[in-house]
Amino acid sequence: MHLYLHVPFCARRCTYCDFAIAVRRETPAASYVAAVLGEWAQRRAHPSWTQSPRIDSIYFGGGTPSRLPAEAIAALVARLQTDRPLARGAEITLEANPDDVTPVAARAWRAAGVNRLSLGVQSFDDRVLRWMHRTHDARAVPVAVSAARAAGFEEISLDLIFGLPGELERDWEADLHRALALGPEHLSLYGLTTEPQTPLARWTERGLVRPADDGRYAAEYLAAHAALCAAGFEHYEVSNAARPGRRARHNSAYWSRAPYLGLGPSAHSAAGGERWWNLRDWTAYQRAIADGREWVAGHEIPEPPSARLEELYLGLRTADGVPAGLVPEPTAAAWVRSGWAGLAGGRLRLTVEGWLRLDALVAAV
Fold first, then answer.
1. Angle of helix 103-112 versus helix 140-150 axis, rounded to 10
2. 282: helix, strand or coil
3. pLDDT value for 273
């Protein structure tokens, strides 16, 4: 059993963010815990989950989960593992903003059972962070890492965003160097995308910013790949790299299409060939749970062609690739000739150049 808990609360919305968040000055922790545990009480009886003897991973994502008081996180973990025992060495991840990682908070998270932190760093350039509307500055990042290490965290992941507008004059290689200098076990790299209804989309429409061109986007991605490999990391998925043995186990469950259960507003679940997703808005979700009304916004059972396409797409995102038979032989051969893939041991694996073309390659199969 893999559990995802969506914590929607944020102090502000970042310029590029289109996630399901709720901007709140004060985090309604008691209401959130009650709603999520109310959903859990119903969902843990699902046939796919009654057969699950243990919890293999828990992931607090958001939003900004670190805005929840530590006692709320502790209460959630305690209740979940009371109803389903944790597997030995279960991975419990908390996404956190660097400015939330104080020595007191970090110790409380560890005491609650959290053993992995994912820090939303994004950049070490204060100008860029202000442009993004982030709540932290560059000085907060090493302070956060130091506090986490002192509290006993042996698994720390840092998020960085590349492909920013050229007018910001961001030094991508300097950001990579500063991230690696902090000694994380894991790095996640996300290319900036312009999503509808975001401040970034409005700025772009008004001509205030210009998205990075394809050439610079690719150059920054390839530079990151080279830097990570030189530092001993395994670039094991399109957007993720880790030191040997330190891959994100929860996220790897998604890419291998393992069953998972999502709790909280907008959370998605997949089990037994079915998928469902919750109401996106926090208030609507919370009221539905409290009133005993339906909180699921939709569900589907993917048809075989869709399931096959998803298996292909998710598999090719990873360094493990897919069985060669999933891609027609002439197509696979063309990819290999172009340097976009390699074929060995009966598996087809995309190269880093292939990952840059992933969407187009899958669409052509």
1. 40
2. helix
3. 86
pTM of the model: 0.96
Range of the domain at 333: 308-363
What is the CATH number for 129?
3.20.20.70
Residues 250 and 350 in one domain: no
State residue 179's pLDDT score: 98
Cα(322)–Cα(99) distance, integer angstroms:
40
Chain-centroid distance of CA 55 in Å reads: 19
Total domain count, the chain: 2
Under 8 Å between Cβ of 339 and 361: no
Work out whether the CA dihedral 349, 353, 355, 360 comes out positive or negative.
negative
pLDDT of residue 44: 81
The residue among 38, 22, 123, 98 whose CA lies nearest residue 295 is: 38
Question: How far apart are alpha carbons 306 and 10 in whole angstroms?
Answer: 34
Query: DSSP assignment of 248-263, as one string?
Result: -HHHHHHHTT--BEEE
Question: In whole angstroms, what is the distance from residue 116 CA to residue 76 CA?
Answer: 16
CA pair distance 355, 341, nearest whole angstrom: 9
Per-residue pLDDT at 50 exceeds 80? no
| Cβ-Cβ contacts under 8 Å for 260 (sequence gap 6 or more) | 1, 2, 3, 4, 253, 254, 269, 270, 271
318 in the same domain as 246: no
Asked, for residue 330, whether it belongs to a domain, the answer is: yes
CA angle, corner 249, sides to 138 and 45, nearest 5?
115
Q: Could you say which DSSP state residue 210 is in?
A: -
Rounded CA gap, 298 and 280, in Å? Answer: 11
pLDDT for res 52: 75
Residue 354 backbone phi and psi in degrees, to 5: -70, -35
Do the Cβ atoms of 279 and 266 come closer than 8 Å? Answer: yes
- Of the candidates 246, 254, 228, 258, the one whose C-alpha atom is nearest the C-alpha of residue 318 is 254
Sign of CA dihedral 118, 124, 128, 131: positive
Host H or E run for residue 275 = strand 274-278
Question: Mean pLDDT over residues 3-18, rounded?
Answer: 95
